[in-house]
Amino acid sequence: MNLGLKDKVAVVGGASKGIGKGCAISLAKEGVNIVLCARNEESLKKTAEEIRGIGVEVLTLCVDMSSLNDNNRIVERTLLKFGRIDILVNNSGGPMAGTFFDFKENDWDKAHNSVLKYTMRMISLVTPHMKKNNWGRIINITSLSVKEPAPTLILSNIYRAGITALSKSICKELIKDNITINNICPGAFKTDRAIELMEKVAENENITIEEVEERSIKNLPLGRYQEVDEIGDLAAFISSESARGITGTNIQIDGGISTSLI
Ligand code: NAD
Fold first, then answer.
1. Dihedral angle computed from the Cα positions of residues 208, 102, 142 and 250, in that order, rounded to the nearest 10 degrees
2. What is the pTM for the complete model shown?
3. Residues with CB under 6 A from ligand 1
4. Which of 45, 47, 123, 133 is 20 to 30 Å from the Cα of 13, by its Cα?
5. Where exactly are the structural domains of the chain?
6. Which atom number of ligand 1 is nearest to the Cα of residue 65?
7. What pLDDT score does 162 carry?
8. CB contact at 8 A, 97 and 197
9. CB contact burial 28-64 (16+ within 10 A = b; e otherwise)
């Protein structure tokens, strides 16, 4: 598909693996140059090589998305190399799983920093540069839990709901400069994060991870976990000119898991 994104520049968080990598690859296939941000140098290098093979330029940054200094560095280095930022995909590791009574003050602070605060900060750092170009796309990877909170993902429920409220609150202002902001809500993608959550269930219920996976798949209307290119292609479409009027939305990609009406 030609989405008219050739030579745009996208900053993608948590991009060496999983959903972030899926977004980076789909955008690169549309000719978007990629700023690949993640913590692990080795997997960053590997993913960067794969994406360069598609034929775009890649800047790798070994950063912690929840660090103020690193967020500033991402913007500075991107502008130094490409001179512009067109697309921002806010994505990083999910917060710890557990119920409300499992967590202490420090856990809340950590989840606030790594989910909501980082997203707020990146949006505030990047939007002045999008405004200069009178064009921008912000995509926040949240979770289906914003539509149907999961009792064992309390930190995810709370802080991603904050991102949902933030996007809705600022979308009217941003669209004046042709900047859209949307949230993608994944259901079940078999990434390292999903495996980690299955391990936690296996441990709690004293069963094997294979049993957890088999049970999960039985409950998935699609009969399988989804692939990260499915979410990547959605991110690429939302970034396109065709999607210029789509803003302030929460788009679920869940193979029919959700039972909510909207
Ligand atoms: P993942 O664990 O497979 O990949 C996360 C990537 O982010 C990795 O590259 C990791 O190195 C990087 N990362 C993690 N914390 C970081 C940090 N502080 N700074 C920089 N990089 C960091 O996870 P995923 O399944 O791809 O999930 C991505 C996001 O989507 C998570 O927030 C997750 O909770 C959410 N989500 C995933 C699913 C799913 O089905 N996989 C469902 C709902 C929500």
1. 110
2. 0.96
3. 14, 16-20, 38-40, 63-66, 91-94, 114, 141, 143, 186, 188-189, 191-194
4. 133
5. 9-187+227-253, 190-225
6. 19
7. 98
8. yes
9. bbbbbbbbbbbbeeeebeebbeebeebebebbbbbbb
- CATH no. of 9-187+227-253: 3.40.50.720
Ligand 1 center to 94 CA (angstroms): 5
Å from CA of 197 to ligand 1 middle: 12
The mean pLDDT values, 10 residues at a time, for the chain of 262 residues are 93 97 98 97 97 98 97 98 98 93 96 96 98 98 95 96 98 98 96 90 94 94 96 98 97 96 88
Residues 60, 45 contacting (CB under 8 angstroms):
yes
Closest atom of ligand 1 to 225 CA is 40
